[in-house]
UniProtKB/TrEMBL annotation:
Signal peptide segment: none
Tree of life domain: Bacteria
Organism, scientific name: Streptosporangium vulgare
Transmembrane stretches, start-end: none
Cited NCBIfam families: CpaE_hom_Actino
Pfam families: CBP_BcsQ, Rv3660c_N
Name of the gene encoding the protein in the UniProt record: ssd
Protein name per UniProt: Septum site-determining protein Ssd
Segments forming domain Rv3660c-like CheY-like N-terminal: 7-114
Length: 348
């Protein structure tokens, strides 16, 4: 794969560009003089020209192309924009102020085969409704069908999706390793850093005291997830924080797990009121109870997204550390298969 091209003789500028590229998960081709750039000029997905060699490059008459930037450490230099026009650049990147933009540009160039994955959020209508079990089951079922899946634990007080799936001892990054992250994250770097098992990549919390997820960190993770995965499943807290709002704003659909009893419906209505201000489609996934499924969905004023009858021996399996049973004879298995078929078509 062709790499971004940097043209500069300025060692300080080159050091900064290499550092920014590393943060974006990108490798560079470097030409110290314009003549050495000729073989790469048309092939490179992105070209960054140092202000120190801009005039020399312009003198060689490079053919016009897109995605050329002029990089400089010199601010307020009246000659900068003349150089920018001379090399056919689309903009000037003054470092260090423009580092975040440059990270995004390098990351775009390093990930040309980006996907556009679906984001599905799962929330519980009340405590113990089974939202985390459904989120984990849906992600696991998708990964078993060779759908590239990222499962994101967004509930700091949920007990941990890694524990639910028996992966609490797995090596890899947790939220505490990512909370300071701002700007773009490479999806390849994210996948490499997180625990992965049975084709499923998981981002969960550490054991012990946890801090809320900053909105910026959630945004970076979900954007990387959408570029690098077919499906991102997010287990939401019932009390929405800034990170949950970020996830809801990117959701293709949100599943609200509701227990089919009066208290369950009333509690779910309170949760739904918070969800509606931040996302589009919300569907009711109804746990069996004394009320009819259609009555539950009609009472909430949202579409019926499916039913989850009680599944014998599910609690015992989870207590043993087993993954949720997802066979075709199980209610979880049937729901997940139907939902994925609707989302991805008959190939899922």
């Amino acid at each position: 794969m062709d790499r971004p091209l940097v043209i500069t003789e300025d060692h300080d500028l080159l050091d900064d560009l290499l550092r920014v590229a590393a943060a974006a998960g990108a490798e560079l081709d470097v030409a110290h003089v314009p003549a050495h750039a000729r073989p790469y000029w048309n092939r490179a997905p992105l070209v960054v020209v140092g202000g120190d060699v801009a005039d020399a490059l312009a003198a060689t008459g490079p053919p016009p192309r897109s995605r050329v930037f002029l990089a400089t450490h010199t601010s307020e230099d009246p000659d900068t924009w003349r150089k920018c026009v001379a090399v056919g650049a689309q903009g000037v990147l003054e470092l260090p102020a423009a580092e975040r933009q440059l990270v995004d540009e390098f990351a775009d160039a390093a990930e040309p085969s980006a996907r556009s994955g679906s984001v599905v959020c799962v929330a519980g209508g009340r405590g113990g409704a089974g939202a985390s079990v459904l989120a984990g089951s849906l992600a696991l079922a998708a990964s078993r069908q060779r759908v590239r899946t990222l499962l994101v634990d967004a509930d700091p007080l949920g007990g941990g999706l890694d524990l639910l799936l028996g992966q609490e001892e797995s090596d890899g990054a947790r939220w505490s390793d990512l909370v300071a992250r701002e700007g773009r994250v490479s999806h390849t770097a994210l996948r490499a850093a997180l625990p992965t098992f049975a084709g499923l990549t998981l981002l969960s919390f550490n054991r012990g005291e946890v801090d809320p997820i900053p909105a910026e960190a959630m945004r970076s993770v979900l954007e990387a997830g959408r570029r690098g995965f077919d499906l991102v499943v997010v287990d939401l807290p019932r009390h929405l924080d800034q990170a949950a709002v970020e996830a809801l704003g990117r959701a293709t659909t949100t599943l609200l797990v509701v227990t089919a009893d009066v208290r369950g419906v009333l509690a779910a209505a309170q949760v739904l009121a918070g969800l509606r201000g931040h996302t589009g489609e919300v569907r009711a996934v109804v746990r069996s109870g004394v009320l009819n499924d259609d009555v539950v969905a009609t009472s909430l004023g949202i579409p019926h997204g499916g039913s989850l009858p009680d599944q014998p021996r599910l609690a015992a399996a989870l207590d043993r550390g087993d993954v949720p049973p997802l066979g075709r004879r199980t209610s979880l298995g049937r729901f997940c298969a139907a939902f994925l078929h609707e989302l991805f078509g008959p190939d899922a």
